[in-house]
Each structure stands twice: as C-alpha cells, then as structure tokens.
Amino acid sequence: MGLPKQDAAALSEKWTEGVLLKRDVFSTVERGRFRTESGDVDAVLRRLDQVPWWSYGLAYHLFSRERRALKLAHDLHVGPALLWAGQKALVRGFIDGVALHLAKPVNDAAYFRSAREALRKLHRRGICHNDLAKEQNWLRGSDGQAYLTDFQLAVCFRKRSKLFRIAAYEDLRHMLKHKRTYAPDALTPKERKILARKSAVARIWLMTGKKVYKAITRGIFNFTDREGGGRRLVNDAPVLRDAMLGHADVRDVAIVAFADRRSGVGLYAFAESDRPDIENQLQAQLAAIKEPKPPEHIQVVPALPRDAIGKVRTEILQLVAMNQVDLIDPLLRNDADRALMRPILDARKNLRDRFNFETADHNVAPSS
C-alpha cells in the first residue's frame, strides 16, 4: 500500500528522511526536515503506507483524529504545529524536548504549572487529548515548558457538553497523576481531591474496557512497554542481559530498544567493562544460546551513565540507540556526565538510520 500520488509528490519535494522513531500497526513515524516557505525545519512525519491491511481502517481513523486536532490547535503552541497534511501522511513540527519518562522533572513545580496551562488552552479550544496517562505523550521542552504530542485519540468538541467535561476532567486527572509522581509536594488540596475521584466513565473503563484494551494491545498488537520495544525488550532483554553478565570481564549490562527500518524493533546492548576487546566474545556468547535473537548492536563502554543513587540512566542510552543525540545534553547534570558520554557517543553503533542532527549547538561535550 503506497502513498497517493499527491502525497508522494509533496513529500518528495519537501521531506528529507531522517531517523525512524516508531513503527507499529498504526503508522510509521520518523524525524527529518521539512521545507517550508521560510526554510527547512526539524519535523516529524506520520505515514500510513506501511501499515498492514487488517489494521488500516483503525489506523486511518486515528490519523484523521490527529490531523483534525492539530489543525484546530494550530496557534495554541501547546503541541506540534501541523506543517502539512495529505490523505495518508502528515508532517508536524518537531518539539525540542524529551518525553516525561526521560526528562523526569522531579520537584519541578513550574513544569506542572505550564502543563495545567497547556490543558486550559486545549480545553478552551474544545479539544480533549484523551491519552495523557502515557508519560511519553507529555514532553518537557528545552525551555522547561510542558508540551503535548500524539493526538491520535483526541476528540474535538463543538460544545462544552457533559461528555466534553468528563473528558477534560480525565485529561486533568491524568496530568495530576504525573505531578504526584514527580512533584507530590506541589499538589494543592483541590488537586488531591481530583486525584481521589475518578469520573464514572473512568471507573467503568477500568472495570471493563481497559481489560479488553490490554488483551488486544498486548496480545494482538504486541504492545507491552512504553518504550516501544515490545516483547523483545520485555521478554528477550533480561535473558540476554543475564548471558552477557556471565562474562567474567563484564560489570554491568543495559539493554534498550530502538526503532529499526528492517526488523521493526531492534535491541542495543551496552556492556560496562574495562576491556573494549571483548565485543566479539560477547557476540559469540549470545549467538551460541540461539534463543532469543541477539541484540542488533553491542557496545562495550568503560562506564554506564548513572544517577545519584547509582541506577543506570537507560533514558540516555535509549536516545543514543535512537540517534537522538541532540536531546541528550539537557539531561546531563554536569561536565563529568558530558565527559562520560563523549566516548559512548563517538563509538555508537547504530549508524544505519542516522541523520545529521548533531549540530554544533547540540554536541555533548564538556563545557569550557
């Protein structure tokens, strides 16, 4: 199933392919550059030409909802701008920031104030997002502000009906759940009351629809984790990690997922060791166990990035695996972190699906 001629012609003239961000049964999403009247800009393309026939109907429905919501929210500056829309593809602006589960805005009350204001603007326009329980649909921009993305489940209301008020309330409640996770001390008494009271629709959904939803998404569509690694990350990665830790010179292992144009989902393993020459040994060791399939990439690093309590920062490693290296620097705490990341970035393996986002402004390097 290819793109309509009109879509293909427009993209061939204006779109420069970049990094694959996601591919599932509903769409293919990639980051690249789009030519506008004022010049080329960073952008994100969603396209339907590579979805299977059996999911196309639902995929097109979700695509249409996103296209309508982005068009209606064009001047609100709380989500990506709609730069172009065709019959089976759309291009939205790229927001310079990272998802909530990567940014982890601990005790950042200002971020959640901006999140609430973003919802106010959206709801005043009659748009309810309807998918804000997912942390990956909240972004923390490089300016510290909150932005929303992925409007595939959004509903645009003409009137402030009872259904609108319920949907808007649930948008707010889900935002407050994230605030409770990262900045609980900033919750007001009124916000705590909202968190304690689900709408009747939400209660019914939890008791009925959500169980069916999980059965379909996890069983049929194979969605099992928020990073998009599916069963390979959930089931295969722990087995592979244990096997790699069996090598006497490996201190620790972190495995993350990335979107891959050939296999759909790839695994990238980082092995912490003082011996950079053991990569071939690790590859042979994993090939010998036959199942599961080995990671697409293995990189031996002298030290893994860690937080203050010593936990490996997989959110940074995932950006390395995805070639989203320009988004890493805001996540680093100091020059020591930048010095640790430099050799990891210089020696990274996933260069097949790579785009030149590493401009001088985004290089991860120690400050002078």
CATH topology of the largest domain: Transferase(Phosphotransferase), domain 1
Mean pLDDT over the full residue set: 88
Shape: globular
**Lateral arrangement of strands in the main beta sheet:** 1-2-3-5-4
Order of helices and strands: HEEEHEEEHHEEEEHHHHHEEHEHH
Q: Would you kindly provide a written description of the structure presented here, covering whatever features stand out?
A:
The protein has 3 domains: 5-93, 2-Layer Sandwich (Phosphorylase Kinase, domain 1), CATH 3.30.200.20; 97-220, Orthogonal Bundle (Transferase(Phosphotransferase), domain 1), CATH 1.10.510; 230-346, 2-Layer Sandwich (GMP Synthetase, Chain A, domain 3). It has a 5-stranded antiparallel β-sheet, sandwiched between helices. A 3-stranded antiparallel β-sheet has the order 6-8-9. The protein has a 3-stranded mixed β-sheet with strand order 11-12-13, sandwiched between helices. The N and C termini lie far apart (52 Å). Helix content is 39%, strand content 20%. The chain has 12 helices and 13 strands. The mean pLDDT is 88. It has 368 residues and is an alpha+beta fold. Strand 2 and strand 3 form a beta hairpin.
